Amino acid sequence: MGRPKDADPEQTRATILDAAEDEFAEHGFHGTRMVGIAKRAGVTHGLLHYYFDSKDRLYEEVVGRLFERHLRLFERLRADGNKVSPREVVLQSFDLFWEHPNQVRIMLWEMASGDARVERSMKGFYDGMAEALATLPGKAPASRRGRDPRDVYVSILGALVVYFFRDPTIKRLFGEKRFTEGDRQRRRAHMGALLDLLL
After folding, report:
1. What is residue 15's predicted lDDT score, i.e. its pLDDT?
2. Is residue 119 scored above 90 in pLDDT?
3. Residues 6 or more apart from 121 whose CB is under 8 A from it?
């Protein structure tokens, strides 16, 4: 199939990726259909396949685009040979999740699926988080009982992502419209206070 005439290929590609990101965030990899992506993007099924010949290929592009932002964050925090601060990584990760909540939703689908694909598609993210949290002590001192670094990691990860769940309890607590700038500032301040307690 030749390139479609009178089309801006970069814009068409971006439109397809945006639509696919929304579909994967709503339905997960297995529940998403290429025809649904085409409909959401406002393109024909044939045009979608011109740009992306398979759902796997499209998914890799979507996930790569989302997690590239985190890879750039880790690179920036590593600049000049500085150690990556766990506190800074978590708070800036929160900022990225807030700007791109589909990243969290796709992560959750991946975790629930148990597919080996999760380690491939999110390796850079998990490696960066692991590097940051590796600066924590390997074992909590006796005076800090309940601060096992492994538990700290799990608690931080949960605190980062649970707010973005489409969960009835979360909606009841915070309301359907819980992503205003005021909400962001409140939630970020809470994350900072939690980190001060745990780290």
Report:
1. 95
2. no
3. 59, 60, 63, 64, 67, 110
Q: Which residues contact 104 (CB under 8 A, 6 or more apart)?
A: 97, 160, 161, 164
pLDDT computed for residue 86 by the predictor: 74
Nearest to 156 by CA among 180, 130, 177, 137: 130
DSSP letters for 131-177 = HHHTTS-SS--GGGTT--HHHHHHHHHHHHHGGGS--HHHHHHH-S-
- What's this model's pTM, rounded to 2 decimal places? 0.77
Residue from 51, 52, 22 nearest 36 by CA: 22
Mean pLDDT, the chain, as a whole number? 82
The pair of three-digit structure tokens given for residue 152, joined into one six-digit string: 């700290």
User: Do residues 48 and 16 lie in contact, with contact meaning Cβ atoms separated by under 8 Å?
Assistant: yes
The C-alpha atoms of residue 64 and residue 68 are separated, in whole angstroms, by 6
Structural tokens at position 88:
């800074």
- Which residue's structure tokens are 């708070």? 91
Distances (CA, A) of 37 to 20, 44, 121: 5, 10, 20
Contact 156, 91 (CB under 8 A): no
- Tokens at 97, concatenated: 């999740």
CA separation for the pair 148, 140 (Å, rounded): 5
- Residue 46 CB neighbour total at 10 angstroms: 10
If we measure between CA atoms, which residue out of 86, 91, 19, 83 comes closest to residue 52?
19
